[in-house]
Amino acid sequence: MTVTDTQRSLLKSRLAQARRTVAAPAGIPAGDPDQPAPLSRAQARLWFLHQLEPDSPAYHVPAAVRLRGPLDTEALTAAVRELAARHHVLRTTFADHDGEPLAVLGDADRVPVAVVDADPARLTELLLACRDRLFRLDREPPLRAEIFRLAPDEHVLLLVVHHIACDAWSLDLMLGELGELYAARVTGGPAPAAPPLQYADFARWQATRPAPESDLDWWAGQLSGLEPVLDLPVDRPRPALADWSAGQIPVELPAALAERIGALAAASAATPFMVLLAAWQATLARVCGTDDVAVGVPHAGRHHPGVERMVGCFIGTLVLRGDLSGDPTGRELLIRVRERALDAFGHAETPFERIVDRLQPERNLATTPIFQVLLNVLDTPATPPSLPGAAELELPIRTTKYDLNLALSRTDGGYRGGLLYRADLFDEVTARRLAGWFRTLLDGLAADPDRPVGELPLEADPAGGPDGPEAGYALDRPLHELITQHAVTSPHAVAVVAADGTLDYAELDRRASVVAGRLLAAGMRPEEPVAVLTERGVSLPVAMLGVLRAGGVYLPVDPGYPDGRLSGILDTAGVRFVLTEAEHAGRVPGREALVVAGLTGEPAAPVPVSPDRLAYLIFTSGSTGQPKGVTVEHRHITHYLHAVRDRIGRPGSYALVSTHAADLGLTNLLGALTTGATAYLVDRETATDPGAFAAYLAAHPVDAVKMVPSHLELLAAHGDLAALLPRRLLVLAGEPVPWELVERVERARPDLDVQVHYGPTETTVSVLGCRTADIPAAQRHGIVPIGLPFANVRCRVTDPAGREVPAGVPGELRLGGPSVARGYLGLADGRFDGGWYRSGDRVRVNAAGLVEILGRVDDQVKIRGFRVELTEVATALREVAGVGEAVVLPVGQAHTRRLAAWITPESADPVLVRAALRDRLPDYMVPAAITPLAALPLTANGKVDRAALPEPAPPAAANGVPPSTPMEQRVAAAWAQVLECGEFGVDDDFFALGGDSFKAVRAVRAIDPQLRVIDLFTRPTVRELAAHLDGGARPGGLLHRLAGPATAALTVVCVPYGGGSAAAYGPFATELAQRMPDTAVLAVELPGHDPARPDEPQLPLPELIDRIAAELPAGPVLVYGHCVGSAAATELALRLEADGREVAGLVVGGSFPAARLPGRLSAWLHRRFPATWWTSDRAYRDFLRSLGGLDDDEGLDADVILRGLRHDVDQAQSWFTRELTRPDRRRLRAPVLCAIGARDRSTELYEERYAEWGAFADRVELAVVPRAGHYFLKHQASWLAERVAAAVAGWRAGSLPPPAADSVTGGAARRDLREFYLMAAGQSISLIGAALSSFALGVWAYQRSGRVADYALVTMLALLPAILLLPLGGAVADRVDRRRVMLACNGMGALIMSTMVALLAVDRLSIAGVGVLVGLLSAVTAFHRPAYLAAVAQLVPKPYLGQANALANLGPGIGQLIAPLAGGALITALGLPGVVVVDVLSLLAGFATLLAVRLPDRLFRRQEETFTRAIAGGWRFLVRRRPFLIMIGFFVVENYLAMLALAVTVPTVYAFSDATGVSVVTACSGLGAGLGALAMVLWGGSQRRALGMVGFVSGVGLGALLVGLRPSLAVAAAGSLVWYASLTVLNAHWLALIQVKVGLDLQGRVLATNQMLAVAMTPLAFLTAPPLAEAVQPLLMPGGALATTVGRVVGVGDGRGNALILIACGLALAIWGLLGLAYRPLRRMEDDLPDAVTGAEIADSLDEVQAAADRLATASAR
């Protein structure tokens, strides 16, 4: 922020009150500009940040100015350079001299200034590319400028300055001075005075004036005890390395609110800024659950009067610490904020960098030091530059330097700005909530400042809850009656199976009644606790049911309890009777021990028990160290059983695998017995032995199990997970459940229903639940949500004062409803309050409405201020090779608190484990102590016994081991030189030894000049850094290790897809390394594909392979190539085998061999006109986006990606062409795995096509990734890694794929290609003949009668049947032999045309007859075309299919252009009989060539659904999207007018010319279509596709107008060309919009619907044309009503009436297009429609895909 006048006066008052006497600052002396200068403190920090993140544009400061009116670009260029000449810092480079950076002055001519002609549609793209282009500060000046010429009188000036040379204040100075310099050059006036001092002078002066220690002491005191990281409600865990990508949402405060803010500020002797800061800090305090909030505030930093007009980086940052303790009122908080702010401004001269150095906060790369949230308030808007017609442009922000940055500017009486947020931490919905909470709280603060800020609402109307659905369960029966009823209804059904026997329901009830009788006879009182001390045998349910039948309270105790704890529980409960087994009877002295198995006597009748009587008593751990007994009534437990049954159904059997002394096991025991199912009681030894438990499940039909997740983890660590799971249902409860465990279960048993349940014992077993299959992959990180409440359960999330907080804000979970227990036995506890229970669990409700557990409110795990999810660290430990089980806990207090880990087995090396963790976790999450154990101690409930864990081992860094390897010694020597100390070991931390940012830069350069600073930050010990370097981590190479050990048994080399990066393989590498721990995964970074190095040359494929092979480590290699990367991958595998290297296998993903047609002509065409030329960048981008491969939100440089894609496609296609046709073909001995996404549109027909890899290897197998698209290597990385690992394991074991037949090379392939050329030639000739005769017959009809009606009839019948019957033709082609269909079509066509010849010969051919015959011929074409295209796919070897399809479509394309020309010439020379004879001969030629062709049995693409189903689906899609309905209405009118114009075009031209003239005009339409397509290739289309789609309707109208304007062949031909060029451009925009907004899967439906609508207008237009022509024609005949007016322009005579219709249609179309552009819902329809999203998974049916798209559209509309 800048300091306002009000703030200055307050500051002066404070200074006067403190009587601080400060001497006036000394003047700044001018220095020698030619001498290198030191960096200022602000520059030094920015220089370091540039070294740390050289590829980040986060510190670029842009200014974009739109200039309207005449502009002298030469003068402006010279003014920019003069600006740099006047302000030296703008032409300074920053060189490293002996580890210290110095500023070196350069020449102003080196400042790049460019004038660029720019397409307005690409302006934003060009501006962002220029803004984000990286500075090389050691060799380039920190300023560049580009002047974009959009039009002769419209330009945009972009200045980009690195922050090291500029701040916002300086930018205003530069723009103002630039305007003056430009004006001086243009007008010849005087230039402004030169600045007396330079920034280098200030830097030298500052270096002599260190910040006073007293100020540093003040800041240290102010920030003492501040948590280093604000615990913001992030949506994702902090990554080890922040990527700083940004999202932004607008924030606006209306003028009325701003006025109240000002009034509150004035009444409190504060400023509006202070009010905004107080509200922002209060909001953050609420959402972070803290009363101590630090917020950064920028300030100008220009404390010396000599720098007011100096350009340079002066901006500083103040850390304002907010104190919200004691729940102050708004006014009290504002006073606190005011005092803190004024004090801070009084010490503002202390540089933030010095404060950081003084405080020495923990160093990490996950966030910023000291504060993470910024507030920037500008009270005065920047002055616009004094350049002609200047207006500032705002550019979208892609990066941020802080977690949250709230920026507000005073505008129009209010405040306007935005909240910038880190996209790697927050979702947009969360950021919007934060902004909304701030606005609401601020409004409340301004309205009622005397109200406690903790009571101010965050939401105007909070939703409350969530609450479970209402259900009217019958709770009038006691628990035991739900069990005993089955003794009547199914007495012989098996109730219990245990190691010591089996009971049916009748026997269970009989024995329980005996137990009840003995208890009653012994004097048991109602609601008296009776202990059940048994193992998990048949005595347990008998005793439990007996106690309940007698009206007692069931108290389970575990025989595994120590005697002391057992005695304490029984004493607390006042137990007199213990039901037990003989071996435990002696453990309960002083009480009556009844051995269940030996009880005899008369059965007792059940005692009447009301639902509000106690059913059981279960003891839990207490905060005092003594167990507390939870009392649960019958109605509580029966309600739970009803509610949980609604969630899990009615499994036929359950297994109890944990202690019965905790309520978690009641689900298994009572869930079975109350539903008539079977309860399997698994003894302790079996339940904890993986082998025995797996055998038990194999022998017993267990449907459901509920267990603790750590229990399952322990079993799975030593056994086959799939064998350890029940048949139907797994419920995990009792602990937070990591997603990693759930996903392992899902992989092992995809059919298993996995649920997570939550509930304290005090609320009766469980009250919330989550079915994991309902959670999409994108939301799976960290811990599984505890889900939604069960029926009738009420949830509230509250702050410490018990006030409800909104969804998204963390708080304590309070539970209410019929499941809340009565209370604690004999204790009054505030946790039970008015039917509610305070759980003590910290939760929040996420955006999906699910409750997420965050930890405990009373013992939240924080390490160095960072919230740590212990399960995440434990999961990371278990994923380290060699580690089995793991548990992580915090140890120590306050600042000494750290993480400790205990792992198995005992042989694990803590040093190696810690090194592995550093590769994937932030340093604060790496345990300081790691203790290996033989086994983790467990409690009776199967949980880890934390109390039994030994003291953590001391950290390994204290061992003082000296460096031993050459690389360790090299690293240590560099450290010793930089740190000026020599006593440290290989495991000591660089920063703990006194290293800082600058020393880190010096150290890495002393070790290796090309090593990155980040490598030292992530590997801060000698051992780790040396191992990193020894592992081949050298910059400049192509191979980058993504996962796995440096020395590996197998190396996997991954080649990216077209235009892709090595980073794309990150998820796959991580997953594969987990499954193959001895495997290193390397990925290739292709030169010229890095957006940070766009000028890097790309490599031809042979050179690329040479370099990869040279870098590969020794040992076996597995090669993976995705998409077009498969060509390079295959070549690499072939090369390695030829060099004698062992290739374990080749994996090709999402790809088949794709080649050009062989032959010299094809090669020549490729050299002259490469295929990649014919697709624009825009089209490529849209196609990639439709596949899910390019996202604008990723902040990627699309131009670099597309350039790389073009190069990769060309290289791959050329390589496949060479390899498939070379006579000495090479083949792999290694097997090939071809992985394909089941829903990938680019790899259809994979069932057959995968075998094409048989051209390169003898053995090939197929893997189909379910519901996957093209980029499954990212989205289904886990599945893919599992499949690759299994394949490699099988290959190593000798299980190789079956031999693959090679069908795409050799003699058979050459024969198929020859037959294709023959068939293509014959069918093209026949199709050209059909087009020729269709044209000629229309002209003949008009020649014969001169009536528009006859021409319209023939032309309509030539068009409509082919369109209407095309779906049927496609269906026939799918089901009938294509060759026979084409033979029949050629024969039928010849017969029809022969009939016409015969009728002509006898002069019996009428207009009606021609109409019938043309209609039949059109119908034949509807069957001919689909059969021909399907036959191409069937005949051609599919590697050549792309080019073959293009060749196959050439015939119809040539026909559109040639048929009118040839038809006109032939009908003039030979008459209609000659044309018809030519057509008959062409059809016979097609028939003859087909006789010589045989179609092999290959697959071809079939229709996915019927035409009617496609129409229905397309119509449903369109009507649910209002913008598409508007578009349909618009084009219904456009289609009618265009078809009406078409109907009168030939009659219009023929009237003033002849058949030849008609052919010329018609041929120009074909030429125009070609030119329109070429224009789209070169241009790419308008930025908004709707503008091109709607705007070119006016172009169509202009063309139609020109055709009719004058009786001139030249004008008509030009009009025809414009007409069809515009139509092609229009359709290209329309198709692009459909591709982006509809997506590949649903395009067929929408296009079919559009075709139906377009066809609907054709008959109407052709039927209305004749009466219109008859009505209008007399008007323009000599003497007609319009002959002397309109006729003067368009001409008079025959056909000019038709011309007038053409002109009217053209004018109407032109106006209609302009109206469409003016109508915002049509012009901006793209804004109102969400882009089609290709998700991680694609549904199997089009209806499911459409349903997902509908949900997205509905959400977007909200």
UniProtKB/TrEMBL annotation:
Keywords: Membrane, Transmembrane, Transmembrane helix
GO biological process: amino acid activation for nonribosomal peptide biosynthetic process; enterobactin biosynthetic process; lipid biosynthetic process
Pfam families the UniProt entry points to: AMP-binding, AMP-binding_C, Condensation, MFS_1, PP-binding, Thioesterase
Cofactor(s) this protein requires: pantetheine 4'-phosphate
Coiled coil regions in record: none
Membrane-spanning ranges: 1316-1342, 1348-1369, 1381-1401, 1407-1428, 1465-1493, 1524-1552, 1558-1579, 1586-1605, 1617-1640, 1652-1669, 1699-1719
GO molecular function: 2,3-dihydroxybenzoate-serine ligase activity; phosphopantetheine binding; transmembrane transporter activity
Domain Carrier stretches: 962-1046
GO CC entries: cytosol; enterobactin synthetase complex
PROSITE patterns: AMP_BINDING, CARRIER
InterPro entries from the UniProt entry: AA_adenyl_dom, AB_hydrolase_fold, ACP-like_sf, AMP-bd_C, AMP-bd_C_sf, AMP-binding_CS, AMP-dep_synth/lig_dom, ANL_N_sf
Protein name, per record: Carrier domain-containing protein
